[in-house]
Amino acid sequence: MTVRATGASVLIAVVVGLAIGVLAGFFGGWIDVFLMRVVDVLLAIPLLLALAIVTALGFGLVPMAVAVAVALVPQFARTTRAQVVQVKGQAYVEAARTGGASWGRVLWKHILPNSWGPVAVLAVLDFGTAVLVISSLSFLGFGAPPPAAEWGTLISNGRNFLITSPWLSLLPGLFVGLVVFSLNHIARTIEEVQR
């Protein structure tokens, strides 16, 4: 359940963050100013906002995925915007426009493919962040009801048996840590390959 909620939250955050970042970076002007102010508000209170969303929508997989996605969207939006602005000023983009390519073609053929690298690294890193946040929310009791196995719920339920059976909390906790460290290593590897 934790992996599904994490995948859904990162997918939502990537799609929404890419859309906001591309709109802000590509069009600029008042659209950029408005969208970046909205992103700044979301960036100011991410975890508190996630808790408020989960409390408002109720417990379960979908509310947790939406809450974590809302907390992750600002990072994707800001990273995408920065990349789009940088690529938009490159000589090959200006050459394509001078050669008669429409803005839509320039966006799809030149700007988006060349802006994707740092966003992919951020997606892998934020997958680890989402695992931690979703595990924390389910540890606090905001996760799916008991028949569903979530790592945070397993750690929380094992707290009652720490004296007699410490592995009930230790093993899920170690697994969460290993997943996050593995994702960080994968993200660093992707970043080094892109250089």
UniProtKB/TrEMBL annotation:
It is a multi-pass membrane protein. GO terms for cellular component: plasma membrane. The keyword Phosphoprotein does not apply. Keywords: Cell membrane, Membrane, Transmembrane, Transmembrane helix, Transport. The chain crosses the membrane at residues 7-31, 43-73, 119-144, 164-187. PROSITE patterns: ABC_TM1. Its main location: membrane. CDD domains: TM_PBP2. Signal peptide: none annotated. It comes from the Bacteria. Residues 1-187 form the ABC transmembrane type-1 domain. Gene3D superfamilies: MetI-like. InterPro entries: BP-dependent_transpt_permease (IPR050366), MetI-like (IPR000515), MetI-like_sf (IPR035906). GO terms for biological process: transmembrane transport. It is found in: Cell membrane. Belongs to the binding-protein-dependent transport system permease family. This is Binding-protein-dependent transport systems inner membrane component.
